[in-house]
Design a protein that fits this description.
- This protein is an all-alpha fold.
- It is 79% helix and 0% strand.
- It has helices at residues 17-46, 48-65, 71-108.
- The longest helix has 38 residues, at 71-108.
- The N and C termini lie far apart (72 Å).
- The model has no long low-confidence stretch (mean pLDDT 86).
Amino acid sequence: MAEGDGSERGVVRGRNDGIDFFVNDLITIAIVAGVVIAAFFILLQKGYLRRLADYVRETKEELKKCSWPTWEELKGSTVVVMISILLLGLFTVGIDFVIAMLVNAMTRI
């Protein structure tokens, strides 16, 4: 094998390799599509899709009945949550620091 002819890696490719890969990909896609279609018809036949559609419809109706916060209420609640998270984080860091100091003091004894 001569250098530079592409065969130094031990892979020699023919002209039809690209076509073979393309056909293999098409076969794989066809099999997956067939399985998905079969699953769809099985679910349709057993009534699961009807139940899912009913669930989505009922959920939309229930969400129309909800009272949503105003923009100002939402901003206020967001600030409260952010401050709470900051305080909880500072508390956790403080407790961690105190415990680390206690452990260091105990290990020096």
